[in-house]
């Protein structure tokens, strides 16, 4: 049922995403579309842990920053291809997420959320004020630039034009969706559902909540890290504020919650609705109206929490896949006696 | 480190810490009664500071006089936010288990709206107010004590006592405590629970109106200071024990001294790292706080 719905909604979206750059060749449109896909990817990675474990992390931007910095530094320092740097950065983010998660998953609800903010802010403030660490040039708040190699180089993750970047992030988004799909149907997915439904009950059945929540967190941190490294390559620039600031964490969370947490397409739907709104506000009103798109995000978040706690995907799902009509025969006690 | 600098740091930390405690009072009250963690707490403080600043910049009103405006204004804002934004959630949760995460997300939405509205209206510039008392100090045993900070500290202690007394002895205070203990039993005894919630939220914000105006003479204002004050307040509340008024002041004093002494050894920005670190450690070691139970 769920899979068919995901296909009904997802396939047309995927086809539209495939042909979009050929229909509209304008590089601004392609770039904006790539940003929508980037946010859809980040929200889907966030959803991997928060939508299934049910803990709201507002510190995921730290994983994006860790992997982004790792990939850029490995490229500039050792000349390692950003593709490998991306994977290594993701692994590093996952490795850091495990002890952090081990300590904080004991906390419930808001406590976990606030701790995750504190963790990410520690990382960001430290990075912003550190120019050099153990001989590694981090350059503090100034950020790092990726030196251009000139022209297109697949190995160096640098391309002329936006088109290759667009297809890379599209492939990453499809990948994270496939991973979510596999995870949902795996042992891990069922365990997580059980833990989310009733933690004590799951524990009594022999499921170790810490272990499976940590597995999900590490996967999520890894995927978020890949996204962070992609972002650094797309802009050829990385700084603590944009790549690990709280705004990014909030974006990921708001998009997932508005779209529908714990579903495969929900985060993408959220990004598809919210990012263009923010982009349009910025484009039409220009840079002088700061923060208007975040006001809209705030209002949409409040409305979603109050009226669509399952996200906008829930009414869509009801509409696209109506529940099969079941016939109910009412039998009164008298009729039973008569039979 | 010579003892003079250290004692100066400790005194400054105590004074600022008292104000942190005062700022956190509202958060503690709201959480204690409604089980809602107000993510927008710091944003409301920022709003109060801008309100006081505007009155000073446009009409030349002294920040301490602006209290007459900021306190009712913040009470109104808190009352409105509770009755319009949060009460639908509480009504919905009556049938379900209380879901503190939804409340946090809801108030995170309020935070986004308030912070960015102020950013839109005033821009990211840092603003400050200079008054007759900004640089005034009295000397006690050779140590300078900033008067504006001293007044803030005294106000925090005073408000904490007044609030405890009011909660204990007034009719409304009793009704608030009854609602905190058991919402349904309070409703059955004839207490208007939605009204109590609105008043509690308004009250928690009104306290911010006071401290916003008291902070303005010596604290620069930007649209983004809300979150750091919000996190600090939460740290203070967790340190002192959620819902405990004396705990809130004690937590504030501890944080103030900690920050101020840490800033003697490292830069002020790195000191912020230490307070976040302290926050995580305290939550992990003793989630109920120093003076809280369970």
TrEMBL record, chain A:
<protein>
    <submittedName>
        <fullName>Branched-chain amino acid ABC transporter permease</fullName>
    </submittedName>
</protein>
<feature type="transmembrane region" description="Helical">
    <location>
        <begin position="61"/>
        <end position="78"/>
    </location>
</feature>
<keyword id="KW-0472">Membrane</keyword>
<dbReference type="InterPro" id="IPR043428">
    <property type="entry name" value="LivM-like"/>
</dbReference>
<dbReference type="Pfam" id="PF02653">
    <property type="entry name" value="BPD_transp_2"/>
</dbReference>
<feature type="transmembrane region" description="Helical">
    <location>
        <begin position="212"/>
        <end position="232"/>
    </location>
</feature>
<feature type="transmembrane region" description="Helical">
    <location>
        <begin position="84"/>
        <end position="102"/>
    </location>
</feature>
<keyword id="KW-1133">Transmembrane helix</keyword>
<feature type="transmembrane region" description="Helical">
    <location>
        <begin position="163"/>
        <end position="183"/>
    </location>
</feature>
<keyword id="KW-1003">Cell membrane</keyword>
<feature type="transmembrane region" description="Helical">
    <location>
        <begin position="289"/>
        <end position="308"/>
    </location>
</feature>
<keyword id="KW-0812">Transmembrane</keyword>
<dbReference type="GO" id="GO:0015658">
    <property type="term" value="F:branched-chain amino acid transmembrane transporter activity"/>
</dbReference>
<feature type="transmembrane region" description="Helical">
    <location>
        <begin position="35"/>
        <end position="54"/>
    </location>
</feature>
<dbReference type="InterPro" id="IPR001851">
    <property type="entry name" value="ABC_transp_permease"/>
</dbReference>
<dbReference type="GO" id="GO:0005886">
    <property type="term" value="C:plasma membrane"/>
</dbReference>
<feature type="transmembrane region" description="Helical">
    <location>
        <begin position="252"/>
        <end position="277"/>
    </location>
</feature>
From TrEMBL, chain B:
<feature type="transmembrane region" description="Helical">
    <location>
        <begin position="6"/>
        <end position="32"/>
    </location>
</feature>
<keyword id="KW-1003">Cell membrane</keyword>
<dbReference type="InterPro" id="IPR001851">
    <property type="entry name" value="ABC_transp_permease"/>
</dbReference>
<feature type="transmembrane region" description="Helical">
    <location>
        <begin position="195"/>
        <end position="221"/>
    </location>
</feature>
<protein>
    <submittedName>
        <fullName>Branched-chain amino acid ABC transporter permease</fullName>
    </submittedName>
</protein>
<feature type="transmembrane region" description="Helical">
    <location>
        <begin position="102"/>
        <end position="123"/>
    </location>
</feature>
<keyword id="KW-0029">Amino-acid transport</keyword>
<keyword id="KW-1133">Transmembrane helix</keyword>
<dbReference type="GO" id="GO:0022857">
    <property type="term" value="F:transmembrane transporter activity"/>
</dbReference>
<feature type="transmembrane region" description="Helical">
    <location>
        <begin position="39"/>
        <end position="59"/>
    </location>
</feature>
<keyword id="KW-0472">Membrane</keyword>
<dbReference type="GO" id="GO:0005886">
    <property type="term" value="C:plasma membrane"/>
</dbReference>
<feature type="transmembrane region" description="Helical">
    <location>
        <begin position="65"/>
        <end position="90"/>
    </location>
</feature>
<dbReference type="InterPro" id="IPR052157">
    <property type="entry name" value="BCAA_transport_permease"/>
</dbReference>
<feature type="transmembrane region" description="Helical">
    <location>
        <begin position="143"/>
        <end position="167"/>
    </location>
</feature>
<dbReference type="Pfam" id="PF02653">
    <property type="entry name" value="BPD_transp_2"/>
</dbReference>
<keyword id="KW-0812">Transmembrane</keyword>
<feature type="transmembrane region" description="Helical">
    <location>
        <begin position="233"/>
        <end position="258"/>
    </location>
</feature>
<dbReference type="GO" id="GO:0006865">
    <property type="term" value="P:amino acid transport"/>
</dbReference>
<keyword id="KW-0813">Transport</keyword>
<comment type="similarity">
    <text>Belongs to the binding-protein-dependent transport system permease family. LivHM subfamily.</text>
</comment>
<feature type="transmembrane region" description="Helical">
    <location>
        <begin position="265"/>
        <end position="285"/>
    </location>
</feature>
């Amino acid at each position: 049922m769920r899979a068919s719905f995901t296909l009904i909604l997802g396939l047309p979206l995927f086809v539209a995403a495939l042909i979009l750059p050929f229909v509209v060749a304008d590089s601004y449109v392609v770039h904006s579309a790539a940003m929508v896909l980037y946010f859809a990817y980040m929200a889907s990675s966030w959803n991997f842990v928060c939508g299934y474990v049910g803990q709201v992390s507002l510190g995921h931007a730290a994983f994006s920053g860790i992997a982004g910095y790792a990939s850029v530094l490995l490229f500039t320092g050792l000349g390692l291809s950003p593709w490998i740097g991306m994977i290594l950065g993701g692994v590093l983010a996952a490795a850091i997420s495990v002890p952090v998660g081990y300590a904080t998953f004991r906390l419930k609800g808001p406590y976990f959320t606030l701790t995750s903010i504190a963790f990410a802010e520690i990382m960001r403030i430290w990075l912003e004020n550190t120019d050099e660490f153990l001989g590694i040039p981090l350059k503090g708040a100034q950020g790092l630039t990726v030196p251009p190699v000139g022209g297109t180089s697949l190995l160096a993750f640098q391309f002329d034009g936006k088109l290759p970047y667009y297809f890379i992030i599209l492939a990453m988004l499809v990948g994270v969706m496939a991973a979510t799909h596999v995870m949902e149907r795996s042992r891990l997915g069922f365990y997580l559902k059980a833990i989310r439904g009733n933690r004590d009950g799951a524990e009594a059945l022999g499921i170790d909540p810490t272990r499976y929540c940590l597995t999900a967190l590490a996967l999520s941190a890894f995927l978020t890290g890949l996204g962070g490294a992609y972002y650094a390559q797309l802009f050829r620039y990385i700084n603590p504020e944009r790549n690990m600031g709280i705004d990014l964490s909030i974006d990921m969370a708001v998009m997932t919650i508005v779209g529908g947490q714990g579903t495969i397409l929900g985060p993408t739907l959220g990004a598809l609705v919210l990012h263009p709104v923010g982009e349009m506000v910025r484009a039409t009103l220009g840079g002088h109206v700061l923060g208007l798109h975040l006001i809209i995000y705030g209002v949409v978040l409040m409305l979603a929490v109050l009226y669509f706690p399952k996200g906008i995907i829930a009414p869509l799902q009801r509409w696209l896949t109506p529940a099969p009509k079941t016939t109910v025969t009412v039998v009164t006690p008298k009729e039973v006696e008569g039979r | 480190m010579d003892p003079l600098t250290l004692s100066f740091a400790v005194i400054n930390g105590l004074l600022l810490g008292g104000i942190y405690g005062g700022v956190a009072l509202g958060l503690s009250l709201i959480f204690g009664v409604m089980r809602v963690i107000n993510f927008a707490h710091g944003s409301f403080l920022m709003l109060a500071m801008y309100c006081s600043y505007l009155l000073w910049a446009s009409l030349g009103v002294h920040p301490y006089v602006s209290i007459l405006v900021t306190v009712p204004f913040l009470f109104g804002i808190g009352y409105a936010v509770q009755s319009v934004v949060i009460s639908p959630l509480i009504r919905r949760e009556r049938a379900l288990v209380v879901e503190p995460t939804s409340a946090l997300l809801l108030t995170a939405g309020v935070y986004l709206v308030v912070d960015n509205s102020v950013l839109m209206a005033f821009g990211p510039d840092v603003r400050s107010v200079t008054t007759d008392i900004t640089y005034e100090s009295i000397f006690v045993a050779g140590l300078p004590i900033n008067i504006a900070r001293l007044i803030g500290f005294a106000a925090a202690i005073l408000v904490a006592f007044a609030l405890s007394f009011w909660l204990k002895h007034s009719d409304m205070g009793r009704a608030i405590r009854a609602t905190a203990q058991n919402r349904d039993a309070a409703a059955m005894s004839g207490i208007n629970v939605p009204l109590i919630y609105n008043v509690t939220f308004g009250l928690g914000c009104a306290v911010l109106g006071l401290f916003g105006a008291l902070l303005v003479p010596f604290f620069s204002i930007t649209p983004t200071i809300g979150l750091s004050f919000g996190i600090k307040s939460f740290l203070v509340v967790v340190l002192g024990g959620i819902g405990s008024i004396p705990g809130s002041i004690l937590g504030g004093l501890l944080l103030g001294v900690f920050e101020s002494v840490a800033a003697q050894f490292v830069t002020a920005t790195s000191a912020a790292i230490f307070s976040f670190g302290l926050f995580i450690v305290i939550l992990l070691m003793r989630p109920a706080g120093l003076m809280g139970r369970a």
